Amino acid sequence: MSPKPLETRLLVTVQRPQLWVAAFGAAVLLILAGFWMSYEYGRSVAGYDAGLFEQERAALQQELDQANAKIAEMQHQAAMLERNSKIDVDASKQLKTSLDEAQSEVLKLKKELAFYKSIVTPEQTKRAVAIQTIQLDADGEGGYNYRIMVSQRGRNDRFVRGILQVGIKGSQDGVETVIPLKNVSKQAKKKLKFGFKYFQNFEGKLKLPANFQPESMRVQVKPSSKKIDAVDETFAWSDLTAGGKQNVGQKN
């Protein structure tokens, strides 16, 4: 009678789960943060040529692929945690939080990648300008940091020039009031002129009067060329402070 084959079992245990959970989360966030810093610098400069934009787009795609791979690895580890009854609940919750944050950043990267693709290979349609992004972030001191990005659509082989006008509508002492951005922002004291081939950012800080209740922000993009239509859009203040808008607004 032949001897029975030797059975072996592999026992996987995870020690100090908080450490590797934090490590995975930090790895993903560092990748995203490093890319984001370089990307923000790149897109703050208007007038790139198509070749440089293509390089930025390729780098963005590579970083996005790396982030997705990291998320897949974290999802695998999360599944392993759920199967291991010895892992404490706090570690599992921490991993889920890190995973949700990473997935949120990947979504933002995908939106930015779509924007870069539209610049590198624009549709051959009539030239137009658009409010690409508008966002408000509270600065913790009663004011806001604002960012408005204006882009060119269709054929972008020539510069588009013009002015940007911004007004904040709300109520002051019960009276409906519109405050021009130049009245509450040092960066907007001078006329907001633009001249770009692909896109241009307008950034600064604003501080509203203490008794003013904002309701919406109106942004007008007025090209100097009559061949390009002006853009006039209004954004709800609550939407802007909740995360901003990408290509969304109400035309007046």
The number of distinct β-strands equals 10
Instruction: Tell me the helix content.
Output: 25-40%
- Name the structural class: alpha+beta
Q: Biggest sheet: strands, sense, closure?
A: 6 strands, antiparallel
Question: Distance between the terminal alpha carbons, to the nearest Å?
Answer: 91 Å
Number of domains: 2
Tell me the radius of gyration.
25 Å
The global form is: flat
CATH class of the largest domain: Mainly Beta
Residue fraction in strands? 25-35%
Q: Please write the string of helix (H) and strand (E) elements.
A: HHHEEEEEEEEHEE
What number is the mean pLDDT? 75
CATH architecture name of the largest domain: Sandwich
CATH topology of the largest domain: Immunoglobulin-like
How large is the count of helical segments? Answer: 4
- The parts where pLDDT drops under 50 for at least 5 residues are 4-15, 44-48, 247-252
Q: What does this protein structure show overall?
A:
By secondary structure, the chain is α+β, with helices and mostly antiparallel strands. The protein has two domains: 17-120; 128-251, Sandwich (Immunoglobulin-like). It is built from four helices and ten strands. Strands 3, 4, 5, 7, 8 and 10 form a six-stranded antiparallel beta sheet that branches. It is flat. The termini are far apart.
